[in-house]
Automatic annotation (TrEMBL):
Residues 2-70 form the Group II intron maturase-specific domain. This is Group II intron maturase. It comes from Sphingobacterium alimentarium. InterPro entries: Mat_intron_G2. It holds the Pfam family GIIM.
């Protein structure tokens, strides 16, 4: 996962990121959900934090404000619960910290 984010990908929209990462995330959920359910939560939370960092780089108003970016992403996830594969299962960024 670390090599995916070498570039900030701020030229992409969040829907394009979802289109790119959903097959991979769905594969993780299918495999680890069967053999190691508790291990997948930390990985998907890390992915959510990478999305928060992406928001801080993409949108100027969130630079240096991770808490606000996480709140915004939490509201966005609540409004679009099917955008990312792991959001469908309830592993969404929290609205409040």
């Amino acid at each position: 996962m670390r090599s995916w984010w070498k570039t900030s990908r701020t030229d992409k929209s969040i829907k394009e990121l979802a289109h790119w990462y959903n097959p991979i995330i769905q594969g993780w959920i299918s495999y680890y959900g069967k053999f190691y359910k508790t291990g997948i939560y930390g990985l998907l939370e890390r992915f959510n934090m990478r999305l928060v960092l992406w928001v801080t780089k993409k949108y100027k108003g969130f630079r240096g404000r991770k808490a606000r970016a996480r709140q915004w992403l939490g509201r966005f996830a609540k409004a679009n619960p099917n955008l990312f594969a792991h959001w469908r299962f309830g592993i969404r960024p929290l609205k409040t910290i």
